[in-house]
Design a protein that fits this description.
Strand order of the largest sheet of chain B: 2-1-3-4-8-7
Number of helices of chain A: 13
Strand content of chain A: 15-25%
Shape of chain B: globular
Strand order of the largest sheet of chain A: 2-1-3-4-6-5-10
Number of strands of chain B: 8
Largest sheet of chain B: 6 strands, parallel
Number of helices of chain B: 13
Oligomer: heterodimer
Number of strands of chain A: 12
Distance between the termini of chain B: 56 Å
Structural class of chain A: alpha/beta
Strand content of chain B: 5-15%
Largest sheet of chain A: 7 strands, mixed
Largest interface: A-B, 48 and 46 residues
Order of helices and strands of chain B: HHEHHEHEHEEEHHEHEHHHH
Shape of chain A: globular
Structural class of chain B: alpha/beta
Radius of gyration of chain B: 19 Å
Helix content of chain A: 25-40%
Distance between the termini of chain A: 44 Å
Order of helices and strands of chain A: HEHEHEHHEHEHEHEEHEEHEHEHH
Chain lengths: 355, 325
């Protein structure tokens, strides 16, 4: 049962955890400060009081043990949801997620499953290079991991339910600046994905809170002239850009993949087939990013329908310095997305700046 | 000694056959690699058999075990059939990991064998997770996790030891100190005399054991397992042992002197135990000889079966990336 009224993304994830922990006694939460403190970003607030210290476990600063414990408990039948305090710190436990969690099902010939979720707070928040990155490409690149990256509270809630119920290891990326947001602009009511059969606001409301299957993208805004594929915080920037461009008569379609693995190639390619122009924008450092993978996919499989090269936007390839102004200059802005859409729609040299 | 003679006579054949199976399996494997019949690599436990056998002898069927890269002996001691392990070495679909894992990724969920692993120390935090699961279930099943003197210095291993003690989990940490991490002598990698010296630092009891004496290993393991089973938390056992072969495959181990190797071979765990069996009338000469013969036949049969069995195919790999939704 979901709470009435709009939830922030943090509250939505909290609700998903609470709901799943009620539904399935095998779901446990592990991480630093997740229990009595309620989590560094308060996402796990209240769970300790409701489910107790056995199922909501404060851990020492031991990323390898946090992830490794989740792996071991998952292998023998539990469903751990482990948290890294910042996505950047996953590097301290990297072996356990990429060499162990991702591979144990295959290496064991299918005998062992690793039904765990690893929650990573991603995104720039003026802390500096070791607290602000978006490392989802490390995990999209690792066969055996699913990767989820919601941009709205409704998506976060529904996807977290599916992630917990999935029998595979899922890396769940939560943008820090979205934790406090209640909706993405551009669509009233923050409704469910467009692939569901619900058509009316009433049906949409009753579907909100349901588990959203992994591997289904969501068209956050319908358009005709340019497809913008965006994740996390870039979804709202793309929607703002779309509003601005609508006044110029340019109609932008915003596609939010919601999961990077499995990737909903069909929705992305179907959109590009209609608009014939594609911009892919994420907050990742642009080289070898998930955006690069999606751009390559569109170029390979959408070549015949494209009227212009795919444009890929990302953060500059630098360790992200500290500071609001500096970061703003390096991370794709609404203006950058507007500029990219204009360039690609006019089919002129779309390479533009080196971002 | 603490064992009543009758109980020991009953236990002796099981201990010896496990050690002989490990020795014969590893020896056969070495020949197969030398002949070019098997590829990849392997890390042999010849000389270390008593550790696996002594620990395995005190476990219950529902206990759990995480192993290392040098884990054929652990798998055999945990009861994995020789045919299943040999088939896995050949990449057969009938292998214990369906041919997907190979030497460093032997698994058996039906026996609580959480796997050999290709990453040094990686099994140790996983074992702590499996022990956490046991605690959550209110089960007194115990989790054993092996690691070497090299792995003892891995960050993940420190994290796991600390966490198990902080949470009082039912884990038995068994360090197989064979004196070398590939070519690195333990004395150079440690500032202290032995890994066991860290036990009080982690907050758990420690025991240093002659790893070539299967009964000493068994006694120490029994104490640690009972402690864990009674809910009294983890222990660290350091077994001093030695690998007769190099680190991997045909690695010649030139970093060790021939005198040192000879001295350790003079303390061959199988020979030592057979001498004990003869001296204390635990087994007759005929029984020992018969056992040698039977194990040899068993291993040869496993090789023959593996040679004839179909190999795994790439399509299986594609299917196993994810559990289907």
């Amino acid at each position: 049962m979901t709470r009435a009224g709009p939830l922030t993304m943090a509250a939505a994830i909290n609700e998903a955890l609470r709901s799943e922990m009620t539904r399935d006694p095998r779901v446990i939460v592990l991480g630093q400060d997740v229990g009595r403190f309620g989590g560094a970003f308060l996402v796990t607030r209240g769970l300790y009081e409701e489910f107790g210290p056995e199922r909501v476990r404060d851990m020492p600063i031991s990323e390898a043990a946090i992830i490794g414990c989740a792996v071991g408990a998952a292998m023998v039948g539990w469903r751990p949801v482990a948290e890294m305090q910042y996505s950047d710190f996953v590097a301290s436990g990297f072996d356990q997620i990429v060499n162990q969690a991702a591979k144990i099902h295959l290496m064991s010939g299918g005998q062992y499953r690793v039904p765990m979720v690893l929650r990573l707070p991603i995104g720039a928040n003026e802390h500096g290079a070791q607290h602000d990155q978006s490392p989802e490409a490390w995990f999209m690149h690792t066969p055996g991991l699913k990767v989820v990256i919601p941009s709205t509270p409704t998506d976060a809630l529904g996807l977290m339910k599916s992630a917990i119920r999935d029998d595979n290891p899922v890396v769940f990326c939560e943008h820090k600046l979205l934790y406090g947001t209640k909706s993405v602009g551009g669509r009233a009511g923050d409704g469910p994905s467009t692939d569901e059969t619900a058509a009316t606001p009433g049906e949409a409301a009753s579907n909100a809170g349901d588990a959203i299957p992994l591997g289904r993208a969501d068209v956050k805004r319908r358009g005709e002239d340019v497809t913008v594929v965006a994740t996390a915080l870039m979804v709202s920037r793309a929607l703002e850009a779309a509003e601005a461009l609508a006044e110029e008569g340019l109609s932008i379609e915003v596609v939010d993949p919601r999961t990077l693995v499995p990737l909903d190639r069909g929705t992305i390619l179907e959109s590009v087939a209609r608009t014939r122009h594609a911009v892919v924008v994420t907050e990742e450092a642009r080289t070898a990013s998930c955006a690069a993978e999606i751009s390559s996919l569109i170029a390979e499989e959408g070549f015949d329908v494209l009227d212009a090269p795919v444009v890929r936007l990302g953060t500059a390839d630098v360790p992200l310095p500290f500071g609001k102004t500096v970061q703003a200059a390096l991370i794709p802005s609404i203006d950058d997305i507007v500029g990219a859409c204009r360039r690609v729609a006019r089919s002129v040299d779309a390479m533009g700046s080196d971002r | 000694m603490s064992q009543a003679p009758l109980a020991l006579a009953q236990a002796a054949p099981g201990l010896l056959v496990t050690m002989l199976r490990i020795r014969e399996f590893e020896t056969a494997l070495y020949r197969l690699f030398m002949a070019g019949e098997l590829g990849g690599t392997m890390h042999q436990a010849i000389g270390q058999e008593a550790v696996a056998a002594g620990v395995g002898a005190v476990l219950r069927p529902d206990d759990q075990m995480a192993s290392t890269h040098r884990g054929h002996g652990h798998a055999i001691a945990m009861g994995l059939p020789l045919e299943a392990i040999m088939a896995e070495m050949y990449g057969c679909a009938s292998g214990c990991s369906s041919g997907m894992g190979g030497s460093m990724h032997l698994f058996d969920a039906s026996r609580g064998f959480l796997g050999t692993t290709g990453v040094v120390g990686a099994g140790v935090p996983i074992a702590v997770g499996a022990a956490l699961a046991a605690a959550l279930e209110g089960s007194d099943r115990v989790t054993v996790t092996f690691f070497g003197d090299g792995a003892a210095n891995q960050g993940a291993v420190h994290e796991a030891l600390n966490l198990a003690a902080a949470w009082g989990l039912g884990v038995v940490f068994v360090c197989e100190n064979n004196g070398y991490a590939v070519s690195m002598p333990t004395a150079e990698a440690l500032a202290i005399g032995g890994v066991v010296e860290r036990a009080p630092g982690y907050g758990m009891p420690g025991a240093s054991v002659d790893g070539q004496d299967v009964l000493a290993v068994r006694d120490a393991a029994r104490d640690a397992v009972e402690r864990a089973r009674q809910g009294n938390g983890p222990s660290l056992i350091e077994c001093r042992t030695y690998r007769h072969k190099g680190h991997s495959r045909f690695e010649p181990a030139r970093y060790r002197s021939s005198e040192e190797l000879a001295a350790w071979k003079a303390r061959d765990p199988i020979e030592l135990f057979e001498q004990r069996c003869r001296a204390d009338d635990l087994m007759t000469e005929d029984e020992i000889a018969t056992m040698h013969g039977e194990v040899k036949v068993e291993v040869e049969a496993a090789v023959e079966l593996a040679r004839r069995s179909p190999r795994a195919d790439a399509e299986m790999a594609r299917r196993l990336v994810f559990v289907p939704s």
